[in-house]
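Methods — Computational structure assignment.
A single polypeptide chain was analysed. Its primary sequence is given first, followed by the predicted tertiary structure written as structure tokens.
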Amino acid sequence: LLLSPIKWKDDKITFINQTDLPSRLKYVTCDNIDKLCDAIKKLKIRGAPLIGVSAALGYALGAVHSKKKTLKGLSDDLKITSRKLKNTRPTAVNLFWALDRMERVFLKALGSTDNIKVIKKRITKEALEILLNYCQQELMTIKIFCNIFKENTISIRLFESCGFTFIDERMLDGNKVNYYELNVIASDDAI
């Protein structure tokens, strides 16, 4: 089973629609901030860490898709992006943490260059680092769960293109464990 709750590819965000789980696995692709904000509001993306990752990627999405040719224009677009994301879940600590981090990266980039392309790359790089950290933490949660059942074999590895977790389903205590059951047991906010 090869799954990722959220991915960044070709300057777009793709995520699992969690409102369809566990009966159906459906990915949704966002190429604009309004679609991402709608997904967060409607709980298609949920779980504190994943909301933080979504906010960071959303900030990068706003930067990458900004059509403004000036630093002031880019700054204005990113303020709008940040405000829209903050309005999706006003009490989501991880969302505000991620946006604060992304805004600091933007300000630091502004202090060292006036090249808009370079600034957009730095923002995107930071968002992908947040995604990588999230993937490593989620993998660790699953490994801890698997160590509880040492007599059973469940193969897990993180692929180089972070965000992909491979789970080889095996018999566990006489019952077939599937991806959804594993996540319910391993972490109540992990997908």
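Note: The longest helix spans residues 116-148.
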